[in-house]
Amino acid sequence: MSDRARPRIRSLLRAADQSLFQSVAARQWPAAESVLPRLSRSANHGLLWGVVALGMWALGGARGRRAAVRGVTSLAMASVTVNTIGKRSVGRARPLLDSVPVVRHLPRQPFTSSFPSGHAASAAAFVAGVALESPRLGTALAPLAASVAFSRVYTGVHYPGDVLAGAALGVGAAYAVRGLVPSRSQMPPPARPRADVPALPDGEGLIVVANPSSGSQPQLADPIRQLRALLPRAEVVFYDEEAGPLSKVLAKAAREAARRGGALGVCGGDGTVNAAATAALAADVPLMVLPGGTFNHFAADLGLDTVADACTAVVQGRAVRTDVGRIRPLRAASGDADPTYFLNTFSIGVYPELVRLRERWSPRIGGPPATLLGVTRILRQAGPIQVEVNGHRRSLWLLFAGNGVYRSVGVAPVRRHDLADGMLDVRVAHAGRFARTRLLAAACVGRLARTPFYAAATPKRLVISGLPEEACIAYDGEVTDAPPALVLDKLDEALTVYRPTADDLPGHSLAAPTETGP
């Protein structure tokens, strides 16, 4: 394009933009006069989308919560981009309101650059982020986002070109977030190695233990209702504290399932699934996992997003083997004590205290506010812990170990590619002068690997000793007192879990498994 042609094209686009604005201003919109100005105001500072996100978190199940987080994160990135780069790079005056009916005017007129529209960017970013995690929810919210974007032209505060540019930036922000934190459909975990398990038509031989204390009642009731519809001959046992510890109930169910030649099923949160895995290992029976808790990390990393996924695998006799993390306390006087297992994560330092605070406060104020308050309190009051890691004395804020390597953003684990990789994902946040501030700053700019206060490795074994008496450990959402010394290692491919293949679910994004073993 020649230098002479560029000004002419810009002039034509500007003229078309202004002409379209005048057409909208001149047209009568009786049904919109009482709606669009209010809708435009409700989206100020992302308030409207915050309310929508809270509703999705409360009512949308596991996928709704993931979509809400992705939508809010995309909105935040779009807002930062628009306000720090977009509006400062292009200074454009707001439209004149002479041709816009007074009834449409906003009480407070914005004074920043008209280009691009921040409201349109936020709306598009939130809905695009939601759609990348849940197309159904994204489709349902698209008309609302379009209405918010159009309201900015209708009320006379933006030209149509400002809105289109803002929407494009918002969609780009959603895709940028997905590049940093891939969605579930982008990262199907490799289903290897395949395991031989019995097919259980109608659920014959399957005993499912459901823990009503995991998550909220609607989260538990819906999976069990679906299970009974898809596997009518499966036996469901609702755990009651009067029956004794959950571990004993699961162990009894696992032994009975082994006697019948069937499988043990579990419906609950990650702590309940952890206890079921321990029982399944002891009885040598395959495990069926139903997503019935708040987060369902293990089920999600397996690719079991729905009850139908798990039921399909049981009917078809499809399963994979996964690694199990092991915590072995070291007792100097009597040798090694009985091990504890973890399917997701292990940690010492500030995280166990955060889990305790969250569990204490969440029944009263809800999970996300409890987590936020817990983080605030820990940042203000917590101190580092002194331990020995593989014989080296360390002062640290946190030691995290994942059962398998996590894909992550900064220090935060996001999702595992492979549940049978034979490795521990170990991350350490060291203490030091201004360590918390420097770690946070490094994480925000994506330079954690270059700060001396952060270290990561993928060993198969880790020895932690010299733990103080008041120290705690957390594993799969459970918190307990720490022993003076312990060993972390892995049981490779020890647990057999039902999981469907892509062939069993047409159109499903699960990766096809590979054959290993006999």
Kindly identify the CATH topology of the largest domain. Answer: Vanadium-containing Chloroperoxidase, domain 1
Our count of domains comes out at: 3
Number of strand elements? 19
What is the quaternary state of this protein?
single chain
* Unreliable stretches: 505-518
What CATH architecture of the largest domain do you see? Up-down Bundle
CATH C-level category of the largest domain: Mainly Alpha
Average pLDDT, rounded to a whole number, is: 83
CATH fourth-tier homologous superfamily of the largest domain: Phosphatidic acid phosphatase type 2/haloperoxidase
Residue share in helices? 40-55%
How far apart the termini lie comes to 65 Å
Largest sheet: 13 strands, antiparallel
Strand content: 15-25%
Class based on secondary structure composition and strand pairing = alpha+beta
CA radius of gyration = 27 Å
Can you tell me the overall shape? elongated
Q: Helical stretch count?
A: 15
